[in-house]
Amino acid sequence: MEKEFKYTNAVIAVPLFFVLSMWLVYWFEIRFHYNFVTNGILPREISGLQGVLFSPFIHSNLGHLYNNSIPLLVLLAALQYFYPRHSFAVICYGILSSGLLTWLIGRTSYHIGASGLIYVLVGFIFFKGVLTRYYRLVALSLTVIVLYGGMIWYVLPDVDNSISWEGHLAGLVSGVAFAIILKSPEYKKVPKYEWELPEYDVAEDKFMQRFDENGNFVNLPEEAIEEKEVVYSYFTGDIRVNYSYVERSIASDSEFN
Predict the structure, then answer these.
(1) Could you read off the pLDDT of 78-88 as tens digits, one per residue?
(2) Confidence (pTM)
(3) CA–CA distances in Å: residue 119 to residues 38, 51, 183, 193, 201
(4) Which residues contact 248 (CB under 8 A, 6 or more apart)?
């Protein structure tokens, strides 16, 4: 099980690449006086579909960009380390599915920012850990809730009209869906004791036979007690050995002078 969690360069490279791409786009806007807001998601407009791909890299101001960068670094690193098999699918399909859902349900306004992907990651990591019921992944789920549990309020309308709650909701729904759809290896506890083995039969256990149905200690019947095998010492053999005693006189000290 522990082999599933392995550090690779991608744990650092993937989040850094994504976040640096966002900062590069913002720098390009400032440096060359571009405004990419119109390349965001414009719901139910064909031209607005371009934002499904571009919106995660477009931010309105420096504060918006900074607030999305830190969670992305943390969550993408966690995704790549604990779920490397699903990392590509969650990121790519998460951007597409959350973007398309925002395009369907969003207000008639441009929706930009990587917060939709953040909600994809939060939904996936939390629910996937709960579904696997493996203690390390459950601990990761609880950590995500402690760090980002307050984000749940921003999937509700009218909490803050300056944010795209539709994009947040679309991301969270997508993340939960991927947690259910994408299969992970089963993390089962390695049996340590005989009674943890699947073929264990309590009726055949000699120790458990010494207890009655009420848990009281009882003696086994004589026929149930197996004779112990006699273990002979290593010098025992089947060959008969005869020993003879030869008397020998003790020589006087003068014989050795």
Answers:
(1) 999 999 999 99
(2) 0.74
(3) 23, 17, 20, 42, 47
(4) none
What are the strands, taking DSSP E only, across the chain?
Answer: none
Tokens of 46: 């064909």
Q: Which two tokens stand for residue 90?
A: 């969650």
One-letter identity of residue 150: G
Helix (H) or strand (E) holding 169: helix 165-181
In sequence order, the 6+-apart residues with CB closer than 8 A to the CB of 73 are 15, 16, 19
Contacts of 130 (CB under 8 A, 6+ apart): 138, 141
Summarised one tens digit per residue, pLDDT across range 4-50 is 678 899 999 999 999 999 999 999 999 999 999 999 999 999 999 99
The identity of residue 124, as a single letter, is: F
**Token couple for 252:** 């006087």
Cα gap 124→140, rounded to integer Å? 11
Q: How far apart are CA 203 and CA 211, in angstroms?
A: 11
Q: What is the DSSP code string of 22-40?
A: HHHHHHHHHHHT---GGGS
- CA distance linking residue 108 with residue 103, whole number of Å: 9
Token pair of 35 as six digits: 């405004």
